[in-house]
Design a protein that fits this description.
Layout (H helix, E strand, L loop, with lengths): L2 H7 L5 H9 L3 E3 L2 E2 L14 E3 L2 E2 L7 E6 L21 H4 L4 E2 L8 E7 L2 H8 L7 E8 L4 H9 L13 E6 L3 E8 L6 H8 L3 E10 L2 E2 L9 E3 L2 H10 L1
Parallel strand pairs: 7-11
Antiparallel strand pairs: 1-2, 1-3, 3-4, 5-7, 5-13, 6-7, 8-10, 8-11, 9-10, 11-12
Helix pairs in contact: 1-2
The structure holds uracil (URA).
């Protein structure tokens, strides 16, 4: 890969800015100063330094975000803030995108990556990757709802959902629940509760496959996946 492309890809600025950096003599490949933007580097084998600091090249980025409400799960929007807008520039430079969508008012686990293959694996309907949500429900969620979700409920458009696993955490005029589903239809959790005459008043995703939301992350915060999280996510699903 060309040195200017490599440095630009990992956040050292535009190709023009990188060209200036190279010209200044700040960049070395295997201890030899490189000024030519066309110089090729082997991103795995060559040692690249900028101002004496080692530069790590990587193609993919994997971020776990605790999505805040009020922000769109999209890469860009003319009017509204997106999850990409809240990334630091050094992460946004990798051009990650959200794996699946959470509604604007939904919070919680959102994976952002530029790894199309992993994204496809996790979203493919054939893979049945389980997603678990915590929700507060207006109305009393009952054993009948557990049975109905287990059997599959009919959504407003006539679609019958695959079995969902519903657990009641708090029962009352409003109820707290956890629901695990293996599909990702539009507004699925909200529509499943509508199908049994109830309304979701708060929704948060807490897991997707083996990936569990890190509760240390405040709303709008994110971090890279650990090697172990990534290994499990790639290996199992
Ligand atoms: N189901 C919903 O209704 N909304 C979400 O954001 C995710 C699942």
């Amino acid at each position: 890969m060309r040195i200017d492309k490599m440095l630009s890809n990992i956040g050292y600025g535009s190709r023009t800015e990188v060209k200036k950096l190279l010209k200044s003599g700040a960049v070395a490949v295997n201890e030899k100063v490189v000024k030519d933007p066309k110089e090729h580097v082997d991103t795995k084998a060559d040692r690249v330094t900028v101002q004496g600091e080692d530069v790590e090249y990587r193609e993919f980025i994997y971020l776990m975000m605790n999505k805040p409400p009020g922000v769109l799960s999209a890469t860009e929007d003319h009017y509204q803030e997106t999850v990409i807008d809240i990334l630091e520039p050094e992460d946004a430079v990798f051009q990650p995108f959200p794996v699946g969508r959470l509604d604007k008012d939904t919070e919680g686990l959102l994976l952002l990556t530029n790894d199309g293959q992993l994204s496809h694996q996790l979203l493919s309907p054939k893979k049945h990757v389980p997603k678990t949500y915590f929700a507060a429900i207006e109305g009393e969620v009952t054993e009948d709802d557990i049975e109905a979700f287990k059997a599959g409920v009919t959504l407003d458009d006539g679609y019958v959902t695959k079995p969902g696993e519903l657990a009641i955490l708090k029962q009352g005029l409003t109820s707290d629940i956890e629901l695990t589903i293996t599909e990702g239809k539009f507004h699925q959790v909200k529509r499943m509760f509508e199908a049994v005459g109830k309304r979701v008043i708060y929704l948060k995703r807490i897991s997707m496959g083996s990936l569990v939301l890190d509760e240390e992350l405040g709303l709008g915060q994110y971090r890279e996946l650990t090697d172990e999280e990534l290994r499990l996510l790639k290996g199992k699903e």
